[in-house]
Every structure is written in structure tokens, then in C-alpha cells.
Amino acid sequence: MRYLCVERRCTRDGCVLLVMATRRALHFVFKVGNRFQTARFYRDVLGMKILRHEEFEEGCKAACNGPYDGKWSKTMVGFGPEDDHFVAELTYNYGIGDYKLGNDFMGITLASSQAVSNARKLEWPLREVAEGVFETEAPGGYKFYLQNSSPPQSDPVLKVTLAVSDLQKSLNYWSNLLGMKIYEKDEEKQRALLGYADNQCKLELQGIQGTVDHAAAFGRIAFSCPKKELPDLEDLMKRKNQKILTPLVSLDTPGKATVQVVILADPDGHEICFVGDEAFRELSKMDPKGSKLLDDAMAADKSDEWFAKQNKLKASG
Fold this sequence. Notes:
This protein is α+β, with helices and mostly antiparallel strands and 317 residues long. It is 21% helix and 39% strand. The protein is built from seven helices and 20 strands.
């Protein structure tokens, strides 16, 4: 479902009309070193579904898999279709065993009593950090916060939390330039909650002391907008002297729709992907064979065995 929400926002640079309803939060990209354990976490602990799985022989033109040129795979996992659920994109680079974590990604919060129950049953480590809220980690050290409750909306994924070094500077970027609505702001706790619509996953910005370190495990958050908005978004960032990591480019997926993307970076270097919505809806259709494709790829991947026979460790990202 889409809502048309037009807002007139004025800053010292002038006034703009923001049509937020045409933009939506899509997914967060994680680099994973162990596909088997990662799939177990998302499927068996969180209770997500494999929505689609794709294999690539060479690196992505928009660095979707990070700064790597070799063979890699992409697995989309979520609680439901990508049209109306915020999901995770799991990128696996063959030959890379782990990635050093920074302090940039602070966690994903979701509401699912079933996930809490699953974790307990599987003896997956949980730590209660607030009443009814449990911290756990996906393989690789990525933090998740599980609320022991039913989701207040159709999508259990509530928010993604990213660290920022200057909250006001980040708010100016995400709200004034990218058009996000500020739902909450707490100066004392140095946090803010933003989003494009009430029924979408939110972005939480949490101020920290010092600089934001992305290390090798850095991720990327993705949003969609109408294809026609992409050139204007790129032009806006150029006029405002903001960083563009990848100018407007077309990305091909074998046998599927070609999408156009622009990759940006916020003041702290968080990577942001904006993709044309129309083609992305075609690309992101759920593949009923997705789970089997992932299982087959994992079974065919003998890299762990090869490295073990050579008495070597996989490279670190």
C-alpha cells in the first residue's frame, strides 16, 4: 500500500516539496563469511524466508558486494515479499571468511515472540537488555534486538540503527536532502527516528562519541524511488556538494529485470542506495525456488574444504 504525503519543507536554501510516499525502505546489506550458519540464523532463529538467491561470476558495478571483483552471491531474506517488507540482503564473497566489524551498524530491531522462542529452543545466545527486549547476534557479529511481542504492523522489522558523529548534521542530510520525516528526536539521548511512511521500517540515528568506523564489514541501506527521480536526486547531491559513490548506473541480473541505481554516502560515510522502484518491483519478486537455490549453492561450495586441506584460512575482508 502507498500513501501520498506531500510536505513543503523550507530551509535557508529555499523551499522544496517532498513527495515521501513514492519512496520506501527496502533492505540492509550485510557481508557474510559463513553462509551456512547465516542461513540457519535467518531461517531457523528469526523465522525469515529465503525470498530469492542469485549467483554472480564477477563483482557488482555498484560495489553491492563490497570492493571485491570475484565470484559472489546475493540472498534476500525477510518475513514476506519485498514489496511491503524490509528485508536483509546477504552478500557472500567466495574465498572471504570474515569481515572486521566497525561501530557503524548498531542493530536491527524486530518484534517477534516467535523469534525469541526459536532462539531459546535452539539455544542461540540471548541477552535481555530491557524488559521484553533481547539482544542477539547473527554470524559475523551483527546485532539484532528481538522484542518478545507480536509485531504492531504487518512487517516485524521495526528499525535499523546507525551510528552518527553529529546528529544535527545527519538530520539535515537525511531529512532536508533525502526527504525523510522525523518521527522522534531526543537531544539528551542523541537519537532520532526517521522514515518515509508510518507503515515502513524506520531509520534510527544514534549519536556516538568520536568518529564512525565502518571497517571492512560496512553495510548499505537501500531505498526505492520512481525511476524519474534518480537523475534529480543525483543532481541535488552534486549541487549540495555531497558524496556520490556511484553515479546513476544500470545493473543487470541474469534472467531478471535491469535496475538503475545511485549510490550515495551520508556525512559519516554510511552507504545509501536509491533504486528505481518500477524495475526493482520486477527484480524483487519472490522466487519459490530461492531456498533450494541457496541450499544447492552452499552444497556446491567446496571452498571451506579446500582451505582446510591446504591448512589455510580464508582471507579476511
